[in-house]
Amino acid sequence: MILNPFHSLCFAIGITFNAAVSKLPAMAVTNPSGNVQDAASKGEVPERYIHKESDRGARNAPTMAAPVIDIALLSSSSKSGPELEELRHVLQSWGCFQIKLKIFINVCDVLISYKSWNDKEVIDEYTTNVKLISEKIFKAMARSLDLDESSFLKQYGEQIKLGARFNFYPRCRNPDLVLGVKPHADGSAITILLQDKEVEGLQFMKDNEWFNASIVPDALLVNVGDQVEVKEETLVYSKITVKHVCKQSGDLIVDHKALDDLELIHQVVSRLALKHNNRYLKSPSAGEGPLNDLRLALSTWGCFQATNHSISSSFLEKLRKISEQFFSLPIEEKMRYGREVDGMEGYGNDLTFSNQQTLDWSDRLYFVTSPEDERRLDLWPLNPPSFREDLHEYTVKIMEIIETVLIAMARSLNVEPNSFTDQVGERPTLFTRFNFYPPCSTPHLVLGLKEHSDGSAITILLLDKQVEGLQLRKDDQWYRVPVPAIADSLLLVIGEQAEVMSNGIFKSSVHRAVTNSERQRISVVCFCCPEKDIEIKPVEGLIDEKRPRLFRSVKNYLETYFQNYQEGQRTVDGLRI
């Protein structure tokens, strides 16, 4: 939303899939700059609100050509007709449309007036009507794709979740510098907006150009969100990027919690039960909820939090403790296990490929822990005394979790359960890295770990219980990963090789580690990499006319990965066809 000298209002409702919403804990973030209305009344624009020029874009954008759909004509059960063709076309090209309806115009007029926002009866009536409209839209979207009209509704369950948001955009003295809402795509399934009747502000990006959303009397604007785009039946639908330019206006938005407004990442996370493999192998219909959660998490964030994975919280705490004990040893003792000049394993820090290389603010203890016959036990510390035994036990349990997750990943995509395990091989390599991030006096200048995505198939992280540091990037925005709220939780991250295998459906998570000026931080990371002689390629069942093959085949992925990592490049990007 862009800003201007006039205020505006809007009201929006977002419709979300039950499984996705139920797994996102509510999080409150305090705005250090205070109330926007207060700042506007003082004529102030705090620096925190000033966006980069690349995000602001042009204010004088052309008007979008998304048509107006007559909702009454979508009520038929027919799979053909000009209105359905129009719906399919507009969702492929714009990802949004306006709908004309006369069933509750008076309610909309009341909602947009200032004095009636607390009228519970009006909001209840509006919500009821929005649910009815949403059901019609979902059925029409399915029919426009030649699917059974209940295809989308079945994925909601019996109770669709609605979240409503009233937006007030006060006047702004610097509309060329400030946005009402930053560029984003909605995390809902669909979002329905009741716009201000007089003041424009909403813009949509299409083909890297911003377009104004025009005001249509007695119409609602419907926008398709990420949750619909990610369903495999709807790959033809286009995801649209939205911003509000700063004009004093208001609108009402119905969607789920606004991810873009949070500084903390939501606990990313389908809490996938991993205790027994057969939980996912009973029948094709078993575990649909967790599998849907898994697919959604890996296709949007590229990671998820796992609990109930058979590793006790007491053992994980023991692993954290021996990590801290090792890094607390005198440097002379730690150097007994020092990394060889051209080697990967042992104690040390960055491999150096050039004098211009920017180094990470971290020390590491790095091993091959599986297969057992490839271990360099001479580099495994004898102090703490239980280190070797504990690391062996952890490795065995991690390999069991990885097998379970790979099978679940395949099942979530409706391909053969062994589709990913076959490419990983019978003897995958598990690298385990103990990370130590000491305090840094200039945390604003130094990174503990530079921006990258992992070269593995799957990465499993045991995070520090008290100190944050890991950050994930999504839609060009960095999100902090909070310390684990659940003591025995592990963070599972998709690596580049799994992105190739999934033909780009699963996203390898781009992440980094920031530094802390006061406290040290420790983490334990396991990287599962396929056998180097096995050819990695997209699973055949994930290639079709709608989703052609995206990546070339590759062997020995890690051969080029580490140098690309130090140079800030992603190996997976070089494999794109």
Automatic annotation (TrEMBL):
<dbReference type="InterPro" id="IPR005123">
    <property type="entry name" value="Oxoglu/Fe-dep_dioxygenase_dom"/>
</dbReference>
<keyword id="KW-0479">Metal-binding</keyword>
<protein>
    <recommendedName>
        <fullName>Fe2OG dioxygenase domain-containing protein</fullName>
    </recommendedName>
</protein>
<keyword id="KW-0732">Signal</keyword>
<dbReference type="GO" id="GO:0031418">
    <property type="term" value="F:L-ascorbic acid binding"/>
</dbReference>
<dbReference type="Pfam" id="PF03171">
    <property type="entry name" value="2OG-FeII_Oxy"/>
</dbReference>
<feature type="domain" description="Fe2OG dioxygenase">
    <location>
        <begin position="428"/>
        <end position="530"/>
    </location>
</feature>
<feature type="signal peptide">
    <location>
        <begin position="1"/>
        <end position="22"/>
    </location>
</feature>
<keyword id="KW-0560">Oxidoreductase</keyword>
<dbReference type="Pfam" id="PF14226">
    <property type="entry name" value="DIOX_N"/>
</dbReference>
<dbReference type="InterPro" id="IPR044861">
    <property type="entry name" value="IPNS-like_FE2OG_OXY"/>
</dbReference>
<dbReference type="GO" id="GO:0016491">
    <property type="term" value="F:oxidoreductase activity"/>
</dbReference>
<dbReference type="GO" id="GO:0046872">
    <property type="term" value="F:metal ion binding"/>
</dbReference>
<feature type="domain" description="Fe2OG dioxygenase">
    <location>
        <begin position="160"/>
        <end position="304"/>
    </location>
</feature>
<keyword id="KW-0847">Vitamin C</keyword>
<dbReference type="InterPro" id="IPR027443">
    <property type="entry name" value="IPNS-like_sf"/>
</dbReference>
<keyword id="KW-0408">Iron</keyword>
<dbReference type="InterPro" id="IPR050295">
    <property type="entry name" value="Plant_2OG-oxidoreductases"/>
</dbReference>
<dbReference type="InterPro" id="IPR026992">
    <property type="entry name" value="DIOX_N"/>
</dbReference>
<comment type="similarity">
    <text>Belongs to the iron/ascorbate-dependent oxidoreductase family.</text>
</comment>
